[in-house]
Amino acid sequence: MNKATKSIILAVTTTIGATLLLCAEDWPQYRGPRGDGISAENVRIPWPASGPKVIWKKPTPNGFSSFAVSGGRVYTQVIRDLNGQRREILVAMDAATGNELWYADIGEAKYDSGGDSGTQDNRGGDGPRSTPTVNGGKVYAFTQHLKLFCFDAASGKTLWVKDIMQDFAGRNIGWKSAMSPLVDGELVFVGGGGAGQSLLAFNKTTGAVVWKKHDEKITHSTPVAATIHGVRQIIFFLQSGLLSVSPQDGTALWRFPFRYNVSTAISPVVCGDVVYCSAGYGVGGGACRIVKNGSQWTAEELWKIPGDRQVANHWSTPVFKDGYLYGMFSFKEFGRGPLKCVELKTGQVKWQQPGFGPGNVILSGKHLLALADDGQLVAVEATPESYKEVCRVKALNGKCWTTPALSNGRLYIRSTKEGACLDLK
Questions:
Q1: What does the pLDDT look like over 72-110, one tens digit per residue?
Q2: Nearest to 250 by CA among 199, 216, 298, 290
Q3: What does the alpha-carbon distance between residue 135 and residue 151 come to, in Å, rounded to a whole number?
Q4: Three-class secondary structure of residue 262 per DSSP
Q5: Please, are residues 339 and 362 in contact by the beta-carbon 8 Å criterion?
Q6: Which of 21, 37, 41, 115 could serve as a FRET partner for 406 with CA atoms 20 to 30 Å apart?
Q7: Are 183 and 122 in contact (CB under 8 A)?
Q8: What number is the average pLDDT over the span 218-233?
Q9: How far apart are CA 402 and CA 416, in angstroms?
Q10: pLDDT digits over 199-218, tens only?
Q11: Nearest to residue 277, comparing CAs of 302, 246, 245, 252?
């Protein structure tokens, strides 16, 4: 190889590396920087036959809290024994090594077996269901008992705490809260308060109440922030259905009534001016188109398909690409539920592939990264033509009901037993 050829290769390699770095971003909250499960990064797929390089693997005992990644650190919620008591713990780890940097005790770790279902060796592992959120050098954690904590991200120092049950006449839900805190702009949003204060917005720096409104009962769903028709809004998936509110003052913008039964757990999926929602327990899925005429908003039903067989998502929120939803559409089909492609405008299934269970997917470029409930990590082309698997690896032991996090070419995944960082650069 002559010097000129080497120079060309070096230049191309440098350009590619720079492009990847430009696309690199934090994954600071549940379902990523925009709350839609979509990464701007393009990663290396296919990976080697032996699987991606494992950068680290550490114990993450019990629960379904996903990783949040920001500023070279990862955060999640686990269970730990402290002084003979089981406690829910927020833990901060070095993103490069997995070594623990600090931890904070955020409450009693007593659960009511809502997360103990599963199959074979994946049984058990009930624990925290909420994922921490990182923003502006602070970490926000919301517990099963509706306590909202704000910590300094560097030191773990507690900055402020809000007890929704005690201070806002809180109304929890069976199996306790699974909501993750949503930060948008200068505010942090949660639900669970009583009549007239069921939805709440706090100043993210001081913890001061900015607004408290509505008489709604929460579900296990995490709200999302979205811009529809040029207007920023916060969309909650509640027992009454979808409710969109103004982030500034909590004023209701539009509603989409949707049946509730036992548990609703996915986040709303915003696809331009269309919003998708779904639940198990016979409820099924549906979509509405959001229309704005002057200051008046309406949600026009596109379709609703009841039942658990076609478009029911238990807690596995799908991702959206080019007119189609991709995700684990199943209900209590542990270890065998399918990955599906569903046409957004009709709700019709274009293809399905069994063997995933209620895991979760994210989207990177043209590929789905699907984490099955048994720890299989599978790369699949996001195309409505057919199921096109590219590669897979057994990545984790334990039950995986968590969502992968992709940041700076590294994939962070966890189960009820262990968490891992995989190199996909």
A1: 999 999 999 999 999 999 999 999 999 999 999 999 998
A2: 199
A3: 10
A4: coil
A5: no
A6: 115
A7: no
A8: 98
A9: 9
A10: 999 999 999 999 999 999 99
A11: 302
